[in-house]
Amino acid sequence: MEYLLARSVAEARLYLLLHPCERCGEVEFEPDAAPGADGDQLLVRYAGNCPNCGVRREFAFRMLDEDPAADGAGVVFGGERTSALIDPGEWLWFADRLAASVPADTGGLPPSDREAAIEDLRTAAAAVDEALKFLPAGGDLVPFSAFVSDRGRAVYAEEPSRFRRVRLENSRDELRRLADEAAGSGAGTRAAAAAVAEAAALADAPEREAGSPADFRVAEVFDAKAPDGSAVMSPSHERIADAAERERLLAYLRGAPVAILVPNRDTDRFQPERGQAVPMSFRTDGTWVWSEELAYYLEHYAFAPEPDLQLHIAAHGYQVPEVPADVLLAASLVFGEPGQ
To answer: Which domain of life is it from (predicted)?
Structure first.
């Protein structure tokens, strides 16, 4: 039997929750736990029958040397390393459901229910903290490659900006504050906090006039500008190591029709000795507009397109949709009328 790497018993138990019965989809599962050892390493095997269909289910975990929950630090799923079991989208899915289960006003709850609500809020905050661990050093956004489960990718697709560093940190801190408030005064203000969060999310969404060039999303190639004004790629920029995935993305990026023809070429930012090697025309699939620089730097340096575009391409099965003539014309005006 394959042993899965778990950083704590809490993480292993959450993995069980996230994986319902393969036969009937039942989520409830109360297995027996059988600890063992492989040298100095703890092994834990969970086994039991599905309460709905009766099928036998077994999971085996190889535990890390130290369970971080055993040091008295409160609700902790793991140490500094990222989870090998649960992706960032699943962590946020779990946090959302825990937070949603807590009443808007905890002041009127019986003491035992209030303690359970406080525990749920703190556990939700710990789950958001796990999603934060997937951020690259100095990076602002969890890379798309970190989302490996169907559930995790669905959460990401619903609102990619939730996986920005500032959004994750704010969510975690707000959950901690609500837990402390409920513990200290017996009353939470989750309704007000939700209203503030909703307003912030709406503020992130720009207003767009339907049918205008603003309906298109323009993909960024570089991450920042150097002091001299030149564009640079962040050291934490995601690179796509999988050759097959690179080829699928390249086929899509280069298979879309040209919206803006740019006859000039640019100098390779990383190997100037290549000369004017970088194509500069813009292509579109009717939703996104991107420079051919994207494909160039992906092919030669494995630099990934931004996560939202990667997800968009994957959602289309890596097949470029047909782009009507009027949409192609609108895309050609995304930077304004020629000569402006």
So the answer is: Bacteria
